[in-house]
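User: Please predict structures.

Assistant: First:
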Amino acid sequence: MKAAFLVILVVVTYGVTVTAFWMTSPKSLTIYPSMDSYSWQSIPHANNGGSNNFEITSASQELNKNMRGWLAFNISAIPSGIWVINAELRLRIWHKTTSEPSELIGDSTGRIYAVYRLTQPWTEYGITWANQPAYTEEHHTTAAVPPGQGGWEGPILWMEWDIPDIVKDWLSGAGNYGVLVRDMQENSTILYSTQFFTRDQVPNSGYYPRLIVTYVTPQEVALFSIVLILEGFLIISIWRRRESPRAQSEV
């Protein structure tokens, strides 16, 4: 019974505090891109800045139709010194290819797209396949293209990547040149493609790509730690008071 009482006391006390912390302390900031563009391998000097779509494609070298996309985010609105809990890149799907074997086109559902941190600058109306910036594989992340189909009128379908380490890199001083999105297995024998909406020529911000950063401040973490320590002393005090009469009675 003694052990059970102690376990219940600890679980209830700390459980309430931890739950309250996670329900009230984390904050989210939604950042829309400052630049977005994509380009074709088949037309290496073409630029698509200002387009209303952002296309990621894998196709064979014979077809020469790989496509990659780039986005950049101004993260100056993120408070300094915060602790990043998560950062999620979200792209709203416009259209996906479906299976058409006779046309050598496949369903892009389940294709793995990766996000990489760029290491060189670029411009929205200057980037092409031929001059695309370098990127690093450090902290890159992947996600599978979800089932379903999007569209201008809906349904609303998002593809999401968790990129907290990339955002932490930027906040720690790495050059913030944005990210690259590409198919992990380019040069496929049939064409797989997914088109996403951009921030250009769309009805409203509901279509925009976005970076959602969830964070807590050091002050909130410090306060949380202090509360846990004080609760620890409280638990010990309650336990000692509960045990003291028993010890005296045994004497």
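Second:
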Amino acid sequence: MPNRILKDSICESRALSEVSFFAEDLYKRLITYADDYGRFNADPQIILARLYPREIGIVSIDDLDEAITELVGVGKIAFYTAQPRKELYGCFPNWASHQRVRDSKKKFPDPTDTTVNDWYYKRFISKAMKAQILTRDGMVCQECGVRVIPEGISVERAIKMCAGTFHIDHIVPVNQGGRCTEENLRLLCPTCNLRRKRHFTIEEIMEFTQAEASCENSPQLAANCGNVRPNPIQSNTIRIQSLSESLSESYMDDVDAKAIQHDHDRVMTAAEDAGFKMTNDVRASLIALYADSGLEKVLEGIKSCSEHGAANLAYLRAVLRGSPKKAKAKVNAQGYEQRDYQDVQDEIEKAQNERILSRLKEMEE
């Protein structure tokens, strides 16, 4: 394979300035990986092995997925399929403008379908939106409360240099109708996000996008298509009742929507009785916690908040993570809002460790 050309104008690229440094590095490595027509095998496992042979234990498939989504979102790479639709290929849209295209045999087929790019477009979160979410959430994981960005690092610097240390999570997954809007995004640490995030294979991505395209092209088919759902997150002014109904349809396919709405009403009533400030954001967060943890666990958590006089989402999340008993053991609820959240986390972990050590001693005896 001939040497590739990297022009000095790449340092001034507006598109690359919008992605992380890791995505920039991946882009340059992909240039060396592509054939003479700017095409390459898009299998992430092959990309990882070919481009990061000495960092396989450091760089993960999830890192590649996030960087690839960034590059597709800013238009630096694209994906396509060819007939028969069995393999996924990548390409550089402006390859001929920057590289010499030799008259050689093509290693990969010509594109026949590019709808697979919709998968990445719908998951792309712009630099401006990331900055908005980081600022709104105070650089703190919305599940466990751990600070994901060290003190002293600005939002812009974190977005550019700290890829992988924080994740922007879709509350309602994209494949269930969620969109990249402020209402549907939240900041999570990698541990919390990867615990609930599902990795999709190439075959699943192609199958999903093909089904989605079929639904969009056929109104009659769209009415019966279970994979494509309406967007459940619309705007800041959305009525909470409509949000609740849409979310229930999104993440509970096989359950009667009326039953889900009834559960939502029980959660809202319990939270209001416990003293929660029932703003739109609090209601939306309660619905998300219900989706993750289930009705009984959320109601038990709200009851614990009421018993300790700590009617706030931060304490409720602590209860749901460690169970009410563990949270009650070491958290002084009366002073909870005035204390540093990490201190509370440390106390809960300390209580857990003490119980583990106690059980080990009992087993030895």
